[in-house]
Amino acid sequence: MTDRPDSVMGLVELARRSFGQAGLANPAADARLLVGGLLRLSHGQIVAGHDAAVAAGDAQRVRAAIERRLRHEPVHRILGHRSFHDLDLRLSPATLEPRPDTEILVDHILPYLKTIIANKGNAQVLDLGTGTGAIALSLLKQCPEAVATGTDIAPEALVTAQQNAHLNGLSDRFSTVQSHWFVEIDGRFDIIVSNPPYIRTDVIKALAPDVRDFDPPAALDGGPDGLDAYRAIAAGAKDHLDDDGLVALEIGFDQKTDVAKIFQACGFSLLEAARDYGGNDRVLLFR
């Protein structure tokens, strides 16, 4: 096996070695993902074409991307897109990078959404702080009878969400509104969902640089106790939730009790709780 810098495997090995020496987590996986993504090669294609020569311009792009990763820029931000729940989503500086744990939120909403559609023939979804549109678009992908509205305070995020809806063939059932929580929202919805900012302000500076320096601060900062967004959602949800409607939320690993108390004080009851892949509390559903 050759280790030429201008071969596919040579570039993968260069990336792996550089990431390992820099102490980055998962250097081998990041190397394969970065090089494969830039050269549009699957893992199998990388293995099968390990000795294939890479054009000089492409090799230069890979080396530049390796340098960006060494500065802690996440691989998917370098690539500009990420897979989420069978969708391919563009990323932008104004959007949080959707992560696998949020797919658990989608998975737990889907049975309820399908039941609503079975009973009513359709369903209205409101995604507060939609970012890339990941949650709303995933629900629409699985439920053709549903329509969704995505809100965000950042107009650039709404542009990205609209692009993702178009790229995934869902733009006819997805609309956006620039709004701070419910301020600009009219009407009622069957499901209100959100992955809001929930990190305490004083913790943000201690986050890994991959998150702290590249995810938008407004998508991370949940206020002094991390619960500001939940208070706003709980206070406004009743006025916008249809009969037998559902509020579904992603939460921080240590926030289950506090968020449940906030919603119970506003007249909601906890319907279901779920944990993420690491065994941490991550999803709460309320009636």
Tell me what you see in this structure.
The protein has 287 residues and is of the alpha/beta class. It folds into two domains: 8-71; 82-286, Vaccinia Virus protein VP39 (Rossmann fold). The chain is 43% helix and 19% strand. A seven-stranded mixed sheet has the order 5-4-3-6-7-9-8. Strands 1-2 form a two-stranded antiparallel sheet. The longest helix is centred in the middle third of the chain and has 21 residues, at 100-120. It is globular. The N and C termini lie far apart (59 Å).
Quickly describe the structure:
With about 290 residues, the protein is an alpha/beta fold. It has helices spanning about 10-20, 25-40, 45-50, 55-70, 75-80, 100-120, 135-140, 155-165, 200-205, 210, 230-235, 255-265; strands at about 80-85, 85-90, 125-130, 145-150, 175-180, 190-195, 240-250, 270-275, 280-285.
What characteristics describe this protein?
Rossmann fold, 12 helices, two-stranded antiparallel ribbon, alpha/beta, 287 residues, 2 domains, 19% strand, 9 strands
CATH class of the largest domain: Alpha Beta
Put simply, the count of helices is 12
In helices, the fraction of residues equals 40-55%
Number of discrete domains: 2
**Beta strand count:** 9
In angstroms, what separates the terminal alpha carbons?
59 Å
CATH topology (fold) name of the largest domain: Rossmann fold
User: How much strand?
Assistant: 15-25%
Q: How would you classify the helix and strand content by structural class? A: alpha/beta
Q: Note the main sheet.
A: 7 strands, mixed
Oligomer class: single chain
Mean pLDDT: 96
Shape: globular
Low-confidence stretches: none
Strand order of the largest sheet: 5-4-3-6-7-9-8
Question: Which radius of gyration do the C-alpha atoms yield?
Answer: 21 Å
Order of helices and strands: HHHHHEEHEHEHEEHHHEHEE
CATH superfamily of the largest domain: Vaccinia Virus protein VP39
